[in-house]
Amino acid sequence: MEQSVKFTPSGFIRTLSILHIALLAGPTLIGGIFYFQSKETHFSFNDTEDVFLIVVPVFAISGLFLSDFIFRQLIKKIPSKDSLRQKLARYQSASIIKYALLEGPAIFGAVAFFNTQNLAYLLIAGILVLYLALQYPTKDKIERNLNLRGEEKSQFNRPNQPLD
Questions:
Q1: Burial of residue 125, with CB atoms counted within 10 A of its CB: 0-12 exposed, 13-18 middle, 19 or more buried
Q2: Mean of the pLDDT values across residues 135-144?
Q3: Cα distance between residue 67 and residue 105, in whole Å
């Protein structure tokens, strides 16, 4: 007997939440492991010979701006004629890209810390992780970002009702 999986709003939010937590866990664990393995750390933005002092902040700022910019562009491109299910699938893809653009520079910052023992890089990675944590998907954020109205909003507010 074939068992079919029903796509529901609550299932969508749960799946996106799990993906978010998984992408958040990577830099958090890596940063924590690197921190607890370090011996003689220091905090400095003054080492003029350290190329990471330019690269890590540039990657971090680029990740912050690009994640938001690309997310907004992808959301804007979702056709209004798409079904709610199609919109949610595109929203999930846009969200994963957003999370990855924050996760990458955070991991890079943690690796820079591990290589140099400079806590400044771990601080930058921590700020990115914090911002990524604030991007946790909620029902309200999804409704607002997708600008759900009328029947679509009603459908989305029935959490266990399968979507077509």
A1: buried
A2: 94
A3: 11
Domain residue spans of the chain:
9-38+65-148
pLDDT attached to residue 5: 64
Please list, in sequence order, all residues whose beta carbon lies within 8 angstroms of the beta carbon of residue 9, skipping any fewer than 6 positions away. 88, 139, 155, 156, 157, 158, 159, 160, 161, 163
Residues 6+ apart with CB under 8 A from 113: 31, 34, 35, 38, 119, 121, 122, 125
- Retrieve residue 24's tokens: 């958040």
pTM of the full structure = 0.91
Spatial separation of the C-alpha atoms in residues 117 and 42, rounded to whole Å: 6
